[in-house]
Amino acid sequence: MPAVSINLAPKRFFPFFSIDDTIRPLGKSNAQVKVSGYFNGDVADSFYNERLELGGVFTVRAPAPIMRWHPAKQGTTAKFRGHLSKIYPELDKIDDNDLDMLIRNMRSREE
Amino acid sequence: MSSSRVVASPPKAYIDTMVFIYHFKKHGLTSKADNFFKDIESGKYAGVTTSFTIAEYLGVMRKALAEARNSPSTSADVARLRKEIEEFISDMGIVYFDADTLVSPGYGKLFSPTENIVENAKHFKNPRTSKWYLVNGADALHVTLAVRTGADVYATFDDDFRGVNNWIKPLMLFEAY
């Protein structure tokens, strides 16, 4: 009985990680975006996409915000200045040093 | 013929959590935070923030409420705090990013660049206090997020961020206002 040879080699998961001309570079942007798309040498943050092998062209977009910039509603800064002290008058018990300490603790720094 | 008017976005300033806190809760630095937000309102800067900043803001304000009342904050407090800051962000035209979007794999690794910032940021010695300052891990995570949003400057009151010039220009509100 002939031996059955099964090709156990995995599909090429990173066919383009060195040079990938199927991905268009971004236009003017200073956002740090990996133009090599989802393909790099690390299995953990890569996935296989057959369309790349078939010559698909991908555009990597800069991250899109939930809310975009628009001119501010005039008077907003004044409206919200010290706003929480009006809603929660008890916050006046927290002095500047206490608040500074809470802020420092926010990023796990004790002084 | 209709003509559409395109308004160019001003330079983008990533807003550190404490700037929001000092603006909303009365503090010695409230006037400086207020002047910075007036510049955003007038169009000198476009503010930028993320859902991670809001999480930090909520954490600090919940603790402050608990300490002030000597009792736990409630879910109603959280809803109110969130509503207020979201209304402010919306009315100020601040660009708001979902932090989950910024950390998706398509934009590369998150913690390696953060480590790189911690390892290579410059120390700063405050001549007034003779204390040394340097970004820590959580600070560096914000720098990574700020760079990914495309922000031009990092607006903060925290001296720890003075050494991150290689990644983003710090806007020290102590001095600027």
Question: What is the approximate shape of chain A?
Answer: flat
Structural class of chain B: alpha/beta
- Tell me what portion of residues of chain A adopts beta-strand conformation: under 5%
Q: Indicate the radius of gyration of chain B in whole angstroms.
A: 17 Å
What profile does the largest beta sheet of chain A have? Answer: 2 strands, parallel
- N-to-C span of chain B: 45 Å
Assign the CATH class of chain B. Alpha Beta
Properties at a glance:
heterodimer; A: 111 residues; mainly alpha; two-stranded parallel sheet; 4 helices; B: 177 residues; alpha/beta; Rossmann fold; five-stranded parallel β-sheet; two-stranded antiparallel ribbon; 14% strand
Topology:
The complex is a heterodimer of chains A (111) and B (177).
Chain A lengths: L22 E2 L25 H4 L4 E2 L16 H5 L2 H5 L8 H11 L5
Parallel strand pairs in A: 1-2
Chain B lengths: L11 E4 L1 H8 L5 H13 L3 E5 H19 L5 H17 L3 E3 L1 H4 L8 H10 L3 E2 L6 E2 L3 H13 L3 E4 L12 E4 H4 L1
Parallel strand pairs in B: 1-2, 1-6, 2-3, 6-7
Antiparallel strand pairs in B: 4-5
Helix pairs in contact in B: 1-2, 1-3, 3-4, 6-7
Question: How do you describe this structure in short?
Answer:
The complex is a heterodimer of chains A (111) and B (177). Chain A has 111 residues and is mostly helical. Chain A has helices spanning 50-53, 76-80, 83-87, 96-106; strands at residues 23-24, 58-59.
Describe the structure.
The complex is a heterodimer of chains A (111) and B (177). Chain A has a two-stranded parallel sheet. Chain A is flat and about 65 Å long. Chain A has helices at 50-53, 76-80, 83-87, 96-106, and strands at 23-24, 58-59. In chain A, helix 1 (50-53) links the parallel strand 1 and strand 2. Chain A has 111 residues and is mainly alpha-helical. With 177 residues, chain B is α/β, with parallel strands linked by helices. Chain B is built from eight helices and seven strands. Chain B has helices spanning 17-24, 30-42, 51-69, 75-91, 99-102, 111-120, 137-149, 173-176, and strands spanning 12-15, 46-50, 95-97, 124-125, 132-133, 153-156, 169-172. In chain B, a hairpin with a 6-residue loop joins strand 4 and strand 5 (132-133). The radius of gyration of chain B is 17 Å and the shape is globular. At the A-B interface, helix 2, helix 3 and helix 4 of A face helix 1, helix 2, helix 3, helix 4 and strand 3 of B.
